[in-house]
């Protein structure tokens, strides 16, 4: 049987002005997707099957789709491989500081990371309505 010579369609990406904050936050809420983002933060581009994640290929494809459709990454095809890159400039233009803030928070919450609120050697003051114990009163 002859192989099809028809190419799959190029991956669709939202325009910069169409990148939605809720979609980006959803895309960044998964540990596997955050691993992809962290790798792409240190490498300009990487082939899709080469990320250090332990998921099935179909699951990995789903994670790339969520990241791509949210505007977090761009993808391009070369021969039979798909390459991914972080859309750092577009994300920074749309939501200044968001990606750095999320990555820094993730690093602080990892084993050996600096606990949140202790970057300057003292804890931050709680904002209005965030007095100690106020969460317990609201959440039962």
Helix content: 40-55%
What class would the helix/strand composition place it in?
A: mainly alpha
Describe the biggest sheet? 3 strands, antiparallel
Radius of gyration: 19 Å
Number of helices: 6
Average pLDDT over all residues? 82
Query: What's the total number of strands?
Result: 3
List low-confidence stretches. Answer: 116-140
Shape: globular
Strand content: 5-15%
Describe what you observe in this structure.
This protein is mainly α. It has helices at 21-27, 31-42, 57-70, 88-94, 98-109, 134-139; strands at residues 46-47, 73-78, 81-86. It has a three-stranded antiparallel beta sheet. Helix 1 (21-27) runs antiparallel to helix 3. The protein is globular, with a radius of gyration of 19 Å. Residues 116-140 have low confidence and may be disordered.
List keywords for this structure.
globular; mainly alpha; 3 strands; single chain; 140 residues; 3-stranded antiparallel sheet
Topology summary:
Elements: H1 21-27, H2 31-42, E1 46-47, H3 57-70, E2 73-78, E3 81-86, H4 88-94, H5 98-109, H6 134-139
Antiparallel strand pairs: 1-3, 2-3
């Amino acid at each position: 049987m002859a192989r099809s010579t028809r190419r799959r369609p190029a991956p669709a990406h939202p325009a910069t002005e169409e990148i939605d904050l809720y979609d980006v936050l959803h895309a960044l809420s998964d540990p596997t997707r955050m691993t992809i983002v962290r790798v792409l933060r240190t490498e300009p581009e990487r082939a899709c099957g080469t990320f250090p994640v332990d998921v099935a290929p179909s699951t990995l494809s789903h994670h790339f789709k969520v990241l791509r459709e949210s505007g977090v990454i761009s993808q391009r095809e070369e021969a039979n491989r798909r390459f991914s890159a972080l859309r750092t400039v577009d994300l920074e233009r749309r939501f200044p500081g968001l990606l750095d803030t999320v990555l820094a928070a993730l690093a602080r919450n990892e084993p050996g990371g600096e606990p949140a609120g202790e970057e300057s050697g003292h804890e931050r003051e709680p904002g209005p309505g965030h007095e100690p114990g106020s969460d317990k009163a609201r959440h039962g």
